[in-house]
Design goal:
Number of helices: 6
Strand content: 15-25%
Distance between the termini: 8 Å
Radius of gyration: 17 Å
Structural class: alpha/beta
């Protein structure tokens, strides 16, 4: 956070950080939206309606599950190399990598779908107007489009590290790892 121009005291947990992004209106919370943070080991889902968190879940499927799936097929790849290849592949290579991580992505998708079903239980059928993806998964080529088709709602990367959001004079990171 110091590199972004903001001082932060205390502990940062993505779950609470996500909530604060909506409270501070860095992300649109006027509509009913779902935010998905995919961390290294675990992921967090929050559904925000009328500016309030109405559902929050954490589950144990993260980027490591995707990278481990790649490394089972390509044991010679380091975790970093698997990450880079997953984020830079194109065409047939990207399709092959997506197929390799398909089972891990399916577990992630199921958790999001369970969260949406839990949100809708006992309510009038309220629609999720959009989904924000946070974390390194948001930059995976073609994934947002795939998720949009599967979930039937617009999917946006929650890019809070754009230069318009940072302190004056602080450049945006060039790669996801630079923000960590």
């Amino acid at each position: 956070f110091v590199r972004t121009g903001y001082r932060l005291d205390g502990m940062v947990i993505p779950h609470f950080a996500m909530r604060n992004l909506f409270r501070a209106r860095w992300l649109d919370s006027t509509r009913t939206v779902l935010s998905l943070y995919v961390g290294e080991e675990a992921s967090a889902v929050q559904i925000i309606a009328s500016g309030r968190v109405v559902l929050s879940r954490v589950f144990m499927t993260g980027m490591r599950a995707l990278l481990d799936a790649l490394r089972e097929v390509h044991p010679e790849w380091s975790p970093r190399e698997a990450f880079v290849r997953l984020h830079t592949a194109e065409g047939e290579a990207l399709s092959a990598l997506k197929k390799t991580v398909g089972q891990a992505l399916e577990r992630l998708t199921q958790q999001v779908e369970r969260s949406i079903a839990a949100f809708r239980t006992g309510r009038d059928p309220e629609e999720i107007k959009g989904i924000y993806i946070m974390g390194t998964l948001a930059s995976l080529p073609g994934l947002l489009t795939d998720m949009e088709a599967q979930w039937g709602a617009p999917v946006w990367p929650a890019d809070v590290l754009t230069s318009s959001r940072l302190a004056p004079g602080v450049p945006s990171p060039e790669a996801p790892g630079e923000a960590a």
